[in-house]
Amino acid sequence: MTTRDKKEFLDLATDFDGFVKEHGWVSRYDTESDAFSVTTPKLSDSARIKYFDDEVAFYITKDNKVEGIFLEYFKANFVKHHKKAKEIKKVLDDLEEKNKTDDTLVKVDINQVEKIAPDLQEAIKLSLANRLNLSPC
Question: How far, in Å, CA of 96 to CA of 127, rounded?
């Protein structure tokens, strides 16, 4: 992993909201699997989900480029552990209600994601600390 690759992880952990805006990432919620993601608009063919802990995974390409964050069991798990995330749960519930199609993937306005950016940033920090066997600061 290069210094630049490591810097991407650090930028995500220290300025999630700014990183997402700078790279034009988009947010989606899968109603069927309860998975929430914030990713590049189109993931590379080589991007794969790599879990860093029980809560947070990243989309990482074969050349170690970070292309997104993935949270499985978002409402069932993440929201329960992050009080501020309850706001986004209401947004997701409303989007699910409006989306009465067979498509289970719902696009979430990136401005809504700003509301939980601090929680996502904290989750990223903790997952990186766990991965490196460090105590969170």
Answer: 28
Cα gap 2→18, rounded to integer Å:
22
Other residues' Cβ atoms within 10 Å of the Cβ of residue 98:
9
- Residue 66's SS3 state is strand
137 has pLDDT over 60: no
- pLDDT, the chain, mean: 82
Report the C-alpha gap between 107 and 103 in whole angstroms. Answer: 11
Distance CA 16, CA 23 (A): 11
Q: Please, how many CA atoms are within 13 Å of residue 91, restricted to the half-sphere of its CB?
A: 22
Cβ atoms of 69 and 111 closer than 8 Å: no
At 50-83, the pLDDT tens digits run 988 877 899 999 988 899 999 888 888 888 777 6
Task: Give Cα separations from 63 to 4, 17, 24, 66, 79 (angstroms).
Answer: 11, 24, 20, 9, 32
